[in-house]
Amino acid sequence: HLAASLPLPAERDHLRPRIDMIVFMIDIKSKYSLKNVEASLAYVDASFFLGKVCFLVTGVGRVNCCSIEMNAVWKLGETYCSPVLFCELEVEGIRVATAQRLLRMLQICAGHVPGVSALSFSSLMRKSAND
């Protein structure tokens, strides 16, 4: 399910499926994109930041067109203890690899991978980013 921003409309709350993971997409070419994500974060329950949130930054192949400083994106990930993934949607191989990575993260967040919790997965992601 996709939403342009949070909070989600309440009128269909009873029909909404369980939310296992939230992926915030940030378009590196749009300052509005980052501001929208920052505004939406206030509506996310704190328990989601224990491994069930990630930030997906798109458009990274066009660094000369950036409207957002990379430090702002990294700081967002650090502040919310959430992984930051980078992707170029226009390159099929990168797009497919990112989709597979997100699917694996979702499987873990939904509890479909025995022996791995979203919390332990999140700490592994942070450790690998620091290495």
From TrEMBL:
GO terms for cellular component: chromosome, centromeric region; nucleus. Pfam families: CENP-M. The keyword Nucleus applies. It comes from Psophia crepitans (common trumpeter). This is Centromere protein M. It is found in: Chromosome, Centromere; Nucleus. The gene is Cenpm. Its main location: nucleus. Keywords: Centromere, Chromosome, Nucleus. InterPro entries: Centromere_Cenp-M, P-loop_NTPase.
